[in-house]
Amino acid sequence: MLKKKKLKTSLNKKLISCLCFTFLYTLLIINPTSASDDGGDAGAFLKNGIGVRPISMGKAFIAVADDVHAGYWNPAGLANLTSYQLSAMYSNPMNYAFISDTGVKDIGYHTLSFALPTGFGSLGLNMAYLSAGDIQVVEDASGPTGETFSNSDLGFLLSYARSATNDIQLGLNLKILRQKVWTENGSGIGFDMGVLYAPVYNLKLGLMLQNLIEPSIQLLDDGVSNSVPRSIGLGISYKLMEDMILVGASIDKAGGRSAKFHMGTEVLPMNDLSLRAGYTTDTGELTAGVGVKVSAIQIDYGFGFLDIGSTHRISLTVDLSRLMTSKGKTPETTEMSTYMQAPEGDQ
Fold first, then answer.
1. Strand 143-163 to strand 168-181: parallel, antiparallel, or no bridges (unpaired)?
2. What are the mean pLDDT values of the chain's consecutive 10-residue runs (347 residues total)?
3. Around 184, how many Cα atoms within 13 Å sit in the side-chain half-sphere?
4. Burial of 321 (0-12, 13-18, 19+ CB in 10 A)
5. What is the pLDDT of residue 44?
6. End-to-end CA gap in the chain
7. Residues 6+ away with beta carbon under 8 Å from 164
């Protein structure tokens, strides 16, 4: 027993040393210069976020990361899931009714998320797709030529997470991005790492290191590519009033960009009903939302307000494990599902 305890302590020290080294390395390789926005970066469309619930909480989700969307915000959170989950989100950023009659007339941003906890760790998949059609071509000061073109962005995040100890979870992302502008297209691959730490009951701390390997996209044959900068995110979350209220806050800093702050809350006034609100300096968006759960199905609606227009978001999330159980699986299947979902210490 004593040997096992010493071994576990030694492994924890090595793990913490490794995380500290990675954190400091990321700090050193991030450009210290500051800029006001990152709209021109490759993969900037992913800043829209994934999941109505996290976005409605002001994107303050690094230290929450407790649902199917965790792979995007902090993949380490997938290690705490105990059921298979599937979620799809539909949104129309900056509703055209609030924008002038020229330029982009229709923008669609849609996501799909899947989480699969197993006996050897948790797997996750997140997909995001943005399309913007009817962009008017302007060649000179005379104005639009009458021609239009479209732009689309597609991103995949493949995630793996596992608990290092009872209090520490680790997660990794393989990120694949593809961009198409008019007739040109390009793609790039990146790598993320996330950590969750629960030092005391109801308190969680999160660390997200994005683009440790930077995705680089080249659209033209001129040899010039556009990279997604490395970034660091830190978050904290806490539950109070017998878990009825969840509050979260986070900060992230990308190379050559100013720091962005996020804050949000979720209140559970009654069973199966959630009210949310938040704010992010990332886009200056003020958000609010509501979630309703009926058996294995949850419906979430979110509203975001910007000076240039509003964004409506809606998502459908299904707890597949609960759905399959309610439909009556065979004992053998149920036993296998329980094994696949159980934490290592319980097997």
1. antiparallel
2. 46 46 41 44 82 97 97 97 96 61 64 96 96 65 62 92 96 93 81 96 96 84 77 97 96 90 97 96 93 96 85 95 72 40 44
3. 8
4. buried
5. 79
6. 19
7. 12, 15, 170
- Per DSSP, helices labelled H in the chain are 2-29, 52-56, 70-73, 320-326, 331-341
- Whether 216 and 186 have beta carbons less than 8 Å apart is answered as no
H-helix or E-strand spanning residue 254? strand 245-254
Q: What is the DSSP string of 9-48?
A: HHHHHHHHHHHHHHHHHHHHHS-----S--TTSTTGGGGG
Structure tokens at 25: 């390395």
Q: Which domains does the chain have, with CATH numbers?
A: 59-342 (2.40.160.60)
Backbone angles phi, psi at 117, to 5 degrees: -70, 140
Geometric angle at alpha carbon 158, from 28 and 338, rounded to 5°: 120
E strands of 164-244, at which residues? 168-181, 184-200, 203-213, 216-217, 226-227, 231-240
| C-beta atoms surrounding 292 within 10 Å | 12
Residues 6+ apart with CB under 8 A from 287: 55, 56, 57, 58, 264, 276, 277, 278, 279, 280, 302, 303, 304, 305
Residue keyed to tokens 């926005």: 37
**Among 53, 89, 48, residue whose Cα is nearest residue 276:** 53
Tokens of 268: 């559970």
Q: What is the pLDDT of residue 213?
A: 92
Measured CA distances, 223 to 187, 190, 216, 330 (Å): 14, 19, 11, 58
CB 280 within 8 A of CB 261: yes
